[in-house]
Amino acid sequence: MRVVILGSGVVGVASAWYLSQAGHDVTVIDRQPGPAEETSAANAGQISPGYAAPWAAPGCR
């Protein structure tokens, strides 16, 4: 089966890999020149809980 995936972010590339491993002919299309240059870049502008310290953490003043 021929499949077209729009977007070369984390989900698009992972989907393309999985489908290609299953024997499909996959084409990935993105408006950016390289992969993961929009929402997948910089964690979509979100602060990851693993990188943020709580205000009431021991040692915070």
Automatic annotation (TrEMBL):
- Keyword Membrane in the entry? The reply is no
Gene3D superfamilies cross-referenced by the UniProt entry? FAD/NAD(P)-binding domain
- An example Gene Ontology CC term for this record: cytoplasm
Keyword Oxidoreductase tagged: yes
Q: Which InterPro entries match?
A: FAD-dep_OxRdtase, FAD/NAD-bd_sf
Q: Which UniProt keywords apply?
A: FAD, Flavoprotein, Oxidoreductase
Query: Per the UniProt entry, what is one GO biological process?
Result: D-alanine catabolic process
User: What cofactor does this one take?
Assistant: FAD
Q: What domain of life does the UniProt record list for this protein's source?
A: Bacteria
Which Gene Ontology molecular function entries are recorded, alphabetically? D-amino-acid dehydrogenase activity
Pathway per its UniProt entry is: Amino-acid degradation; D-alanine degradation; NH(3) and pyruvate from D-alanine: step 1/1
Reactions listed under catalytic activity: a D-alpha-amino acid + A + H2O = a 2-oxocarboxylate + AH2 + NH4(+)
Q: Taking every annotated instance into account, which residue ranges of this chain make up the domain FAD dependent oxidoreductase?
A: 2-55
Instruction: State the similarity comment.
Output: Belongs to the DadA oxidoreductase family.
**What's the protein here called?**
D-amino acid dehydrogenase
At the highest ranks, the source species' classification is: Bacteria, Pseudomonadati, Pseudomonadota, Gammaproteobacteria, Enterobacterales
